Amino acid sequence: MNVPIVRLFALIVVLFGLLIAFTSRWTVFEAQALRDNPDNRRSLLAEQKIRRGTIRSADGQALARSVRDENGVYERRYPTGALFGHPIGYSFTALASRSGYEQSQNDVLTGQSEELTTALESLIGRRREGNDIITTLDSRAQRVATQALGGRRGAVVALDARTGAVKAMASTPGYDPSGLDSAAALRRLNTDEQARPLVNRATFDTFPPGSTFKVVTAAAALDSGRYEVGSQVDAPAQKVVSGVPLSNFGQRDFGTIDLTTALTNSVNTVWAEVGVTVGRTRMQDYMERFGFYDKPELDYPESQILASGVRKRSGLRPVTSGSVDLGRVAIGQGDLQVTPLQMATVAATVANGGVRMKPYLTQRVVDPDGRTVERADPARAERVISRESAQELTTMMKSVVREGTGTAAALTGVEIAGKTGTAEINTSGLNDPWFIGFSDRVAVAVVLDRIQGGQGGEVAAPVAKVVLQALGR
After folding, report:
1. Please, what is the Cα angle at 434 between 148 and 468, to 5 degrees?
2. Which end of the chain has fewer CB atoms surrounding its CB within 10 Å, N or C?
């Protein structure tokens, strides 16, 4: 055996193996990272020649489509303007910038496939085209939600409680993606620190939930067996919680009442005591079951979604931490910060008999030949509370709308369950009014940011009412 030849052969084998390894790294294992690299101009230039797929609402309205110019370059158009600006986002290859659903579904919309398949298509002369997507969004509900917000800072999220489908996702102030035709236009919106028009307040802004969080506290209390609907609790005008006096709205003394009355009238001194009695460990457990402390598994950019929970300067802090005022968290105060998507999920979970579903925006994907290649498969996240607890809580929440703080959300012929909230921002009367609720199938969350003297039952509940009405529930 010729030793030098053997050594040369071994060297060639090693070099060939390294070649395969490195080419596989970029074409297979790290292909997505390479495509997503903002410094990679090749993919951006290539995408200008690709007909990006059309995005449509569930009722067939075009939300984003591509138009080819005389040079063969495709440009994106947004026929509905600012109406779907936040959920759909934008995609401009000339600016090397994307956001929202356009960003998360980029591979689907550009027909991105395996490198070998793409190479084969090039050899046979087939032009690459993107897939069309039909979303779960309802254009009428989106329009009604946006109009009801009336230009005020705020957000609305509506979910199909049984499936998790996002029916509406409105955030105001908004922006028209069609107007982002230059880097200067994008920079101008980015520097508007007061309105923050590019921020999707439904997923990427947090607010103190106020009394809407009492639904979570009630769920933990009932499901844990520590309380029943008829449990009697003292409800004085003021009670010391964690060493600090806590008062009911208007300093009202309710005497001794049951839990339904306490939720109907949103009695702070009751729910703070209930939260403390349930305990830190159990409250943390139920918050996590409802989805707090994790980003929702939504087909939307993870970088544009925030997790809800108790927020300190150091980040999220569990309620098991001794530095967290459990009594005030139990009534939606005490550094608790939530997104509208999270609170819509709370309402949807109760409406769905205690089962939390994963939210989603993609209903159907259609290839260039008109074939449906992907269809939504609603996924269960977990059972949060028992069906019996959910039914009891639903009855309590219906009382809120029938005779309590949420009467402005009542609909003729349909029994609505809900909970109002009014988070006080400062002593000057600025509030974040809330409403969460549901009908037989649709769940909704509404928040308005920094409304002078605004109460949840007066300001947010009417918005929820018209959205539920638009969705036919």
Report:
1. 50
2. N
User: What's the token pair of residue 249?
Assistant: 């709205």
- What stretches of 196-279 show up as alpha helix (H) in DSSP? 214-223, 259-264, 268-278
**Rg of the chain over all Cα atoms, to the nearest angstrom:** 26
Q: Is the pTM of this model over 0.85?
A: yes
Fold of the 139-176+194-363+383-470 domain = Beta-lactamase (3.40.710)
What is the distance of C-alpha 267 from the center of its chain? Answer: 28
Contact 436/347 with Cβ under 8 angstroms?
A: yes
CA–CA–CA angle 455, 460, 465 (5° rounding): 135
78-104 tens-digit pLDDT: 999 999 999 999 999 877 789 999 999
Q: List pLDDT tens digits, range 353-385.
A: 999 999 999 999 999 999 999 999 999 999 999
> Residue holding tokens 């596989």?
24
DSSP code per residue over 312-355: ETTEE--TTSTTS-HHHHTTT-TTEEB-HHHHHHHHHHHHTTTE
Hey, where are the domains in the chain?
139-176+194-363+383-470
Active site residue 211: yes
Q: Considering 91, 104, 171, 211, which one is annotated as catalytic? A: 211
Strands 132-135 and 55-56: parallel
- Output phi, psi for 205, to 5 deg: -135, 145
Span 204-261, pLDDT tens digits: 999 999 999 999 999 999 999 999 999 999 999 999 998 899 999 999 999 999 999 9
What would the pLDDT profile of 42-54 be if each residue is shown by its tens digit?
565 667 789 999 9
